[in-house]
Write a structure and sequence with these properties.
The chain is 41% helix and 18% strand. By secondary structure, it is an alpha+beta fold. The strands form two sheets. The chain has a five-stranded antiparallel beta sheet. It is globular, with a radius of gyration of 28 Å.
């Protein structure tokens, strides 16, 4: 009995040593130590908001974000507020004919806005969505549908942004903030449930993934 116990201990020691040097002695497979962990290592992906393939667009976004002078202490909400306020002053109005739907329309309109400083509601939505995603990495989506932001009795085509903050979706409408004269509605960070069906009717959603 003692010999068998000693033999097993010797086999465990031999196996451990063999594993360290890449060889296992014959007959030792049934006594391999159990505390062996196998890990799969993969390359780490870029942080959300930092994986934009269009380098020219990324450069333009970073220029705007840098101008806001964020610090390590700046919260996501503070970043969103600053960028929201920036768009109110930075862009003039331009009309967009139709409803955007072609692949990549959001990036295209964001680039146009940053270059020309002119924006329709769809330009506004795309640009703010890209700035918000780039600056915070939060989940961002562009909503296309109708809104009564200009006239409570008239629903018209419109685009706005929704951002998920601490597990909840909030609406952000930089175009409404710029041009709507409604005093009963706030356009910065409103709960989705309080706006959908009352101010907005969403028809299509485009997730901003980069």
């Amino acid at each position: 009995m003692m010999k068998k116990t000693i033999f097993k201990k010797l086999m465990v020691l031999c196996t451990s040593a063999a594993l360290a040097f890449g060889t296992v002695p014959a007959g030792a497979a049934d006594v391999v130590p159990q505390a062996v962990t196998v890990e799969t290592v993969s390359a780490q992906a870029a942080k959300p908001g930092k994986n934009l393939k269009d380098k020219n667009l990324a450069k333009s976004l970073d220029k705007v974000i840098k101008a806001q002078k964020f610090t390590k202490k700046t919260t996501d909400k503070q970043k969103l507020q600053k960028l929201f306020n920036y768009t109110k002053k930075a862009y003039k109005y331009t009309r967009y004919m139709g409803i955007p739907s072609a692949k990549g329309w959001d990036a295209k309109l964001a680039k146009e806005t940053l270059a020309t400083k002119k924006a329709s509601c769809y330009h506004d939505a795309a640009t703010f969505a890209y700035l918000a995603r780039r600056a915070t990495g939060l989940p961002v989506r562009i909503c296309i549908g109708t809104s009564n932001l200009y006239n409570t009795s008239r629903w018209q085509n419109h685009g706005w942004v929704e951002i998920k903050v601490k597990g909840k979706w909030y609406t952000f409408d930089t175009n409404g903030n710029r041009f709507s004269k409604r005093k009963d509605v706030k356009w910065f960070m409103q709960k989705h449930a309080s706006m959908e069906g009352k101010v907005y009717k969403t028809q299509k959603i485009y997730n901003v993934n980069f």
